[in-house]
Amino acid sequence: MKKVKISIISKGLLLVVMLLFIGSLFVPMWRIELAAPQYPEGLVLQLYANKIGGDVEIINGLNHYIGMSTLHTENFFEFKILSYIVVGFALLSLLLIFIAKRKAVRTFFIFYMLFVVLAAIDFYRWNYEYGHNLNPNAAIKVPGMSYQPPLVGYKQLLNFGAYSIPDTGGWMLTAAGILLFFIVIKEYKFNKSETV
Amino acid sequence: MNKDIFVKAIIALVIGSALLTSCKPKNSSDAVSGDAAQKAYVAPGKYDEFYNFVSGGFSGQMSVYGVPSGRLFRVIPVFSVDPEKGYGYNEETKPMLNTSHGFVPWDDLHHTEMSQTNGEVDGRWVFGNANNTPRIARIDLKTFTTKEIIELPNSAGNHSSPFITENTEYVVAGTRFSVPADNSNGDVPINTYKQNFKGHLSFVKVGKEGDMSIAFQIQCPGVNFDLSHAGKGKSHGWMFFSCYNTEQANTLLEVNASQKDKDFIMAVNWKKAEEYIKAGKGKMTPAKYAHNVYNESTHSATSEMKTQVLVLDSKELKDICYMIPCPKSPHGCDVDPTGEYIVGSGKLAALIPVFSFDKLQNAIKNKQFEGEYDGIPVIKYEAALHGEVQKPGLGPLHTEFDGKGNAYTTFFVSSEVVKWDIKSLQVLDRVPTYYSVGHLCIPGGDSKKPFGKYLIAYNKITKDRYLPTGPELCQSAQIYDISGDKMQLILDFPTIGEPHYAQAAPADLIRNNGQLKFYKLADNKHPFVTKGEKETKVVRSGKRVDISMTCIRSHFSPDNIEGIKMGDEVYFHITNLEQDWDVPHGFSIKGANNAELLIMPGETATLKWTPDKVGMYPFYCTDFCSALHQEMQGYLRVSPAGSTVPITFSLGTNLSSATK
Q: Is B339 in the same domain as B408?
């Protein structure tokens, strides 16, 4: 099997991908915005690689009416490992520059996509868990109502409108994925001749 | 033919009387023109352009309105107790109302003055005066609460106050009543006024963070000091006070103090006074006055009794005080934005004298004096006079400025506001007010930088302006648009107490000054703070029981308390655990003979309560806090003295069988 080297541009892009991975560690990855008439300034839940940020205390306070469990960073194993995974991705990106093989890049891209899908499933699972696992002694019980936030997008939950979207870090990870995809396309479509 | 003449006569009569009727002075409703409503209208959800801090008069409080809507936002308790907010009732704020006469629950707040930097309103603080038991209060505009109160010795009727210098170096106060000095024998015949009564002017130093202290007092002849304003720009370093009763009458002042054709505006060179103090010319004299400070981190006030004050004698130390003759018992004493013109308003006069600071300086340099008043040089009237506004109206009281060279003066007797040109002294416009106007306010109108868009007139008599409410009618203010050449009445709005002086500032200056949304629980250093439900406790020490409670939507912890006995003195120390804007909790318990607590997020407040009979005492949250507010309640069991019921407290579990 032929081993095809990647171009210098692709190497540069891999460097950018690495920086995007590193950068995403310092900013929130995901945000759930909540809007209600009595909160004209809005409430926001921000998910970092290693913690929950934003108006967590206020949201926990509000959720107790409907019997939702309170959110605490330490209850999610994801926050313990996510930083390492992202650092791992960054190191792999760096390594790829030196390996410089297009097949390696493709493998990494597929692996990364798998991770994204897994992360989405995991996120959905937690949303489901929190939205459905309600305290039977809750003050407000609306028959048939669950409070699962949307995976992505907008959903009305009682008096709150919930809007779930990537935050800065999420967009950086998205950009990293797009760049990887671009590299793979570029290397396979346009650089067929270059061989070792 | 006769019939024709008859018809013509009738027509002439009708037209004639119509003309006559139209000659009748216009009534109030006619004075409002078509677009007034639009100008005063602030749509739901929109904000006003200005904050207006209005003295609450004999309510002792300060009210906050929006301009141009005239909507009331808040009443800030200052010198009177306020059971609604627990002010003066909870243990933390009781020291705020302490004085050398003990706890004083009421006063009369006449004037407000906002802090300034470089002669411009800076949005940090607003000051208020207590007229009856002389004091000055500082209100923090981040929290809209009273943070500091200082008492003024040697004073009575603190009316000429709290006027500030252009960098808030001093808040100044002149005594309305002259009285024998506090350290002299006050047990003298009243008719020895001329020998024994003195008027003291207090210069209260203001630190970077507030910290008021009386830097010095100037002892002056016994007269009534009425109002004052600081010089600014070129006249910075001078303070001007209006004085009446220079006749030195001690009875029937309405006649006896109105004898002289001219009283005085007293010009005080406070920079000179500072020099004398540096040279050691001041005399430290015994006095007793309270200084009360509210500490935001302990959420508690402390009261300290001061024992001496530095006094300068105006008779001995020359070049500090000068008297400028001013017609007929001057009331208002206002300095224009440039600092050059000083407007004295003789409340019984039919003209307005305007003095020139440059001329005043020349007159002093060239000793253009017409004599002395009790040891103080009296400057020749004409030597200091810029000119007189002729026929402005009757009974001028107060003047504010728009920063465009115009002055606006209120006339009590002729019930009007008159606009005139400061330099040419020509009357430019006049509008009626309803009725008998007192103070007026233009945002920044006594500073170097007025915002001359609106003028608010504070009325004394309102009679037919609103629906009647029994013998006492509501107090009132009126807003005029002064952005054009002609003043235009756009709104009436009722006020609390009796409005006296007021100040206003652009809304953004205060909105963006770092408004506090809640107190950080982590920074709460109250001695009885409870930072979580696990820390709640009930501790008995003899007859005293301290209950450290918390509240959060929507329960108190603990909410079942037993073991309280007759004869106990119970202190509820309640910490609001919320850390979000707009979630105060209230606390009240049946039979409390003081007030409720209103506890801001992150704050701790204490209510003292003494059970008066054996039984069950419910308590609950008084400030609607959530959908479960009506569930926010608890019980306290009171047993007879000597009962063996032990102290127990709980939340969410029924008490153990031991206590049954």
A: yes
